[in-house]
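hiii so um. not sure if this is the right channel but i have a protein structure encoded as tokens and i wanna go backwards to a sequence. like what aa goes where. can anyone help
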């Protein structure tokens, strides 16, 4: 009796790379937001697909000012690249040119699988999904200030009436990614609020103080409204020389300083301005 032979499906040679969201190149922190898997075929034939994260919590934890609409637009652009048959190396090169430093491509890795569609789901679960069991993340610094600001604006019922993530690029240059956290217009004034933490570093405070004097008059001219910026700051040691320096710089830049403890009063004032 002839021996039985087991059928072994052909395993395809595949390659994949990750798409990483990198809000600050200096900090070298990133979050994996996408994965591209394709057959190792230089002519662009064969399997090619993309998986993206299903929610943006990790991105928001890393960067509360992340532009999710822009990231979703990148996702659509990548799918468009994959749908066209082209040289794989050329495709990767075009992606690198398309994205700013905010989205970076990881080195290409090789793998093999009988079913590429199943393999990409396995890889996506490994690289993109958060572990089901994890310790609660404790907010600190700027993230904590932002969460408290949101809570107070929600408490008085004006959260949806505020402007969120107000870009400065219309008043500086295209590509400027800085945004003020919240704001609203009343009469001829544009009230702005921005969370600033000095606990770990004074760099963000110094940057804000350095840039705001140039941004404010351009906003005033274009919007025909005087910007009034309030920096909501955390509790810190004001006796430290670098902290005093940063606070004085913001005051000299005509930025109002408000401790986080004043947020309830700020929210109440905003409520009176917006809904009476």
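sure thing!! here u go:
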């Amino acid at each position: 009796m002839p021996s039985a032979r087991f059928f072994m499906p052909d395993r395809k040679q595949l390659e994949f790379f990750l798409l990483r969201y990198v809000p600050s190149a200096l900090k070298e922190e990133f979050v994996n937001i996408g994965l591209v898997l394709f057959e190792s075929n230089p002519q662009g034939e064969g399997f090619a697909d993309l998986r993206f994260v299903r929610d943006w919590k990790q991105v928001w934890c890393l960067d509360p000012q992340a532009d999710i609409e822009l990231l979703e637009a990148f996702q659509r652009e990548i799918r468009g690249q994959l749908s066209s048959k082209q040289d794989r190396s050329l495709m990767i090169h075009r992606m690198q040119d398309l994205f700013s430093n905010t989205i970076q491509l990881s080195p290409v890795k090789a793998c093999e699988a009988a079913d590429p569609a199943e393999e990409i789901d396995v890889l996506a679960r490994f690289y993109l999904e958060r572990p089901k069991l994890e310790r609660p993340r404790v907010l600190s610094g700027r993230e904590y200030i932002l969460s408290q600001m949101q809570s107070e604006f929600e408490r008085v019922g004006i959260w949806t009436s505020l402007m969120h993530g107000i870009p400065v690029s219309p008043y500086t240059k295209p590509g400027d990614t800085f945004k003020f956290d919240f704001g609203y217009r009343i009469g001829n004034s544009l009230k702005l609020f921005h969370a600033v933490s000095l606990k770990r570093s004074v760099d963000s405070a110094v940057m804000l103080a350095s840039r705001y004097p140039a941004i404010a008059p351009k906003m005033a001219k274009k919007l025909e409204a005087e910007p009034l910026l309030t920096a909501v700051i955390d509790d810190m040691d004001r006796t430290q020389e670098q902290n005093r320096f940063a606070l004085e710089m913001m005051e000299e830049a005509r930025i109002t300083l408000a401790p986080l403890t004043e947020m309830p009063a700020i929210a109440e004032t905003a409520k009176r301005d917006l809904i009476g």
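oh and Residues 1-8 have pLDDT under 50 and may be disordered.
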